Amino acid sequence: MRYLTAGESHGPQLTTIIEGVPAGLTLLAEHINEELARRQKGYGRGRRMQIEKDEVKILSGVRHGKTLGSPITLVVENRDWKHWTNIMGIEPLASDTEEVKRKVTRPRPGHADLNGAIKYGHRDMRNVLERSSARETTVRVAAGAVAKRILSELGIRIASHVVEIGGVKAENTAYTSLEELQRVTEQSPVRCFDAEAEKKMMAAIDEAKEKGDSIGGIVEVIVEGVPVGVGSYVHYDRKLDAKIAAAIVSINAFKGVEFGIGFEAARRFGSEVHDEIIWSKETGYTRKTNRLGGFEGGMTTGMPIVVRGVMKPIPTLYKPLMSVDIETKEPFAASIERSDSCAVPAASVVAEAVVAWEVANAIVEQFGQDRIDLIIENVENMRRYAKEF
Ligand code: EPS
């Protein structure tokens, strides 16, 4: 499967065309809208989220609630567009029009503004920032919602939560089941399982906001029920952990990724890192621990996939950082009109979506591509073989 996205942050709409989704999958707008609504929540968002109420239109690839196997087109309108019809208009405007004269010439440090402008030759950096905006993650979440439908048919469960914001760590993450983790985090304004940490995270966001600053954090995604052997060791571009790592780092403002104990592995002996193999008639092969986060040799082990991503603080700050105007070459203090102080809770929903996509894609490729019923059958067979092996 693959998908492309299109759309500018303040343009008319965001679009994704998803290719290769198996036929026969139940897919309703409500499945996607539920995910879009989860992404819009989260303590620390700015005023834009009060303007938008993301709702999908399914324009192709689905008939009477089932996928056809043909490309699926999903569209989400930008409600803010009505305030930007001239600035972001498609038709040319006279060169002396206010909207044409008002160029963005001051790159914000940490954004795509300057590099993008130099790369594409744009003297108005709005041409860069409109597309580099994290607004685009709306349709990545829509594509992820389709992937989550596939996982659900296969009995694969996925959840995400926030484990750190602005240096405040979730200490209590001892959830007894993924359902419990989901139930608690869906109610939390910062998508955190630990109620104590939640309060401190919210206070840290308030403090950043008051200072005109922003804060980042760490999100975790867990996938349970993935059969053994998804991905492959035989080639770099078939390793599923590598694909997931790329997907996480491709989310706006994400700077790093780790699986299981992650970077902590550098500080331990091998005997304290690798997971001992055990066997029982009921479960087949499992591991005593899951320090490697569900992957060995680029393939799933059958243990839960545990992946974390780190998000830097959003670079659009009320508190000015020094930059240079590309017209005058004069230094100036970059400042803005509207921003989020923290988007880590929303980003955990995006991370969940991109991980869901990579896992579903690998399974569809590996277990037969065209029909969901055959994929279900093949995955069930694989689960049986693995148990009897
Ligand atoms: C974003 C800037 C803000 C965020 C936006 C991402 O938008 P605006 O410039 O319109 O105030 O609200 O996020 C979304 C619109 C969204 O849907 O998540 C940026 O520069 O990345």
UniProtKB/TrEMBL annotation:
Cofactor or coenzyme needed: FMNH2
Reactions accelerated catalytically: 5-O-(1-carboxyvinyl)-3-phosphoshikimate = chorismate + phosphate
Database matches in PROSITE patterns: CHORISMATE_SYNTHASE_1, CHORISMATE_SYNTHASE_2, CHORISMATE_SYNTHASE_3
GO MF: chorismate synthase activity; FMN binding
Assigned EC number: 4.2.3.5
Residues reported to bind NADP(+): R39, R45
Record carries keyword Lyase: yes
One cellular component (GO) term of this entry: cytosol
Binding residue positions for FMN: R131, S132, S133, N252, A253, G297, K312, P313, I314, P315, T316, R338
Signal peptide: none
Cofactor: binding details: Reduced FMN (FMNH(2)).
GO biological process: amino acid biosynthetic process; aromatic amino acid family biosynthetic process; chorismate biosynthetic process
Enzyme class at the top of the EC tree: lyase
Pathway: Metabolic intermediate biosynthesis; chorismate biosynthesis; chorismate from D-erythrose 4-phosphate and phosphoenolpyruvate: step 7/7
Pfam families hit by this protein: Chorismate_synt
This protein's UniProt keywords: Amino-acid biosynthesis, Aromatic amino acid biosynthesis, FAD, Flavoprotein, FMN, Lyase, NADP
Listed NCBIfam families: aroC (TIGR00033), PRK05382.1 (NF003793)
The protein's role, per its UniProt record: This reaction introduces a second double bond into the aromatic ring system.
Record note on quaternary structure: Homotetramer.
Family: Belongs to the chorismate synthase family.
Name recorded for this polypeptide: Chorismate synthase
